[in-house]
Request: fold
Amino acid sequence: MTQISERNRSLAVSQTLAMSQRSAELRAKGVDVINLSVGEPDFNTPDHIKQAAKQAIDDNFSFYSPVAGFLSLRKAIAANLAQVNGVEYAPEQIVVGNGAKQALCNVILSIINPGDEVVIPTPAWVSYVEMVKLAEGVPVTVPADIRQNFKITDEQLRSVITPRTRMVLLCSPSNPTGAVYTHDELRSLVNVLKDCPNVTVVSDEIYQHINYTGSFTSMASFKELEGRVVVINGVSKAYAMTGWRIGFMAGPVEIAKAVTKLQGQYTSGASSIAQKAAEAAYTGSQQCVEDMRRAFERRRDLICGLAAEVPGWKVNRPRSRCGSRSRDTRPESQRPRRCFLSVPGSLGLHRTTFRRPRHQRLRRPRPIPSRRSPCGHCRRRGILPPRLHSPQLRHIRR
Ligand SMILES: Cc1ncc(COP(=O)(O)O)c(C=O)c1O
Reply:
């Protein structure tokens, strides 16, 4: 029998992608499924971006691109980061990859040695821990609960840093909680990190533009951490381009060089057509980003109100798109034995998926399908409020 490596066997499958796949299979069989798994805007990619891709095909952008991405795209990313976040990067500090996911994995694989510790506040996106395991690092999770709005404090951070800590992986706005660290909250974390010169801060800012707080601070803007912050971002969420697979890392030149070497050996540069589309996204009108953000905000308001009606649930109000985190406060005996995964008509994630038992992420990335009557199965089990299935949700459209 063919041997599968220890490294591969120790990895968990991506539960969000597995659920998404399962929902597609059920839908193909005619089942009316509400997919609450993967984070994907339901909007189409804006026309001016699609037009740029068509033009790129006609202009024969069909050859390998530089491994780090076209210079014109890296310049467009640098200009965008300077204008929106006030942080300056040279194109040599930016490496474009196949989505933010690859950009992030590249960075972890380029920095982490076996046994190095990586601090990950939880609830956390499903892939962080697995990527650290792939690099043979040690994930050190730091729990933050609903009472602290799912954000870790400076004392918590200080308490987990050891001489083996090599990286802190922050995600703000957060998937899955929707929490957004304020400038002052980040500043208090920076005050801890500035005394840890061997620690690189990886700041996953992929949800930066789907933010309802009206303000965003990039970790890269703190001068005390200069030369030690790597920003991860991309076009997937902000421009409804999940399938185009363009993301990037921006950080110190030596990390960008290491990432380019790694990527050059296993995927080469990202799709040249998609890069041209991403360039149009960064250089064109940003109105589409704001229009989508407003639509997500309306949906957030509705779903938070409805979820708060579920008996035994505490619901936080997400500050960004990612989801409303709910905590089931009922005693064990009264809690449903099964989670969303098992509810006919809805597909959610197992409650430990994001490393936070007894919590469920709700997200409403797509308009709710045409379910007209309350679902008895859910009502009996108290899993979803009947109104989550009501026709009024159908009014939440773009
Ligand atoms: C927090 C977070 N980071 C990174 C990614 C990866 O984004 P991309 O689709 O650009 O690879 C995701 C995707 O869901 C995410 O939720």
Q: What stands out?
A: The two ends are 51 Å apart (CA to CA). Residues 336-351, 364-398 have pLDDT under 50 and may be disordered. DSSP finds twelve helices and twelve strands in the chain.
